[in-house]
Amino acid sequence: MGAVVRSGELLRLALVLLATVCPLTRGTPLLLYANRRDLRLVDAAQSKGNATVVVSGLEDAAAVDFVFDHGLIYWSDVSEEAIKCISLNQSAGPPITVVSGLASPDGLACDWLGAKLYWTDSETNRIEVAELDGSLRKVLFWQDLDQPRAIALDPARG
90 φ, ψ to 5°? Predict the structure, then answer.
């Protein structure tokens, strides 16, 4: 039979687990960025921010975003013509390809409220959307676009 854990102890255990698994919960401003061959995380509050490599061995990472509630980092890789994903807790396994068959995926943005993934493709002149797992892919805009490269969302306002 399992041990009985009171709700206060469970909450404390969950916070300790999050603090050890996910550096984004520690209360310091962190900056996650793509550095072409890797993804890095740096403490933005320190004047000499030493970056920690979160994902290495990438081909040509162009854009990066994350979904805190799911503990996932997403990035676009122009050379691999794909959008990939990895858990913040890398013990969950290697990166997975979420969307493939893209021509030049430059921009990327995660809607953490609607659980959607948006991206730009500067070669096909499209802005597309899919579920966070890459399913239900749909082209949103394709007319009157000239090499869209960046995208930003305001999920709170829809």
Answer: -65, -10
Q: Can you name the CATH fold of 28-141?
A: Neuraminidase (2.120.10)
| Distance separating the N- and C-terminal Cα atoms of the chain | 46
Domain chopping of the chain, boundaries: 28-141
Q: What Å distances lie between residue 40 and 33, 62, 63, 84, 143, CA to CA?
A: 5, 13, 12, 15, 35
Distances (CA, A) of 7 to 4, 14, 69: 10, 10, 20
Query: 19-35 in b/e burial notation, b at 16+ Cβ within 10 A?
Result: eebebbbeeeebebebe
> Mind giving me the DSSP string for 130-152?
EETTS-S-EEEE-SS-S------
Scan for tokens 């050379």, then name that residue: 79
Reference 145, options 100, 115, 106; nearest CA is 106
Q: Using CB atoms within 10 A of its CB, is residue 89 exposed (0-12), middle (13-18) or buried (19+)? A: middle
Other residues' Cβ atoms within 10 Å of the Cβ of residue 78: 20
pLDDT tens readout for residues 72-95: 999 999 999 999 999 987 656 789
pTM of the model as a whole: 0.78
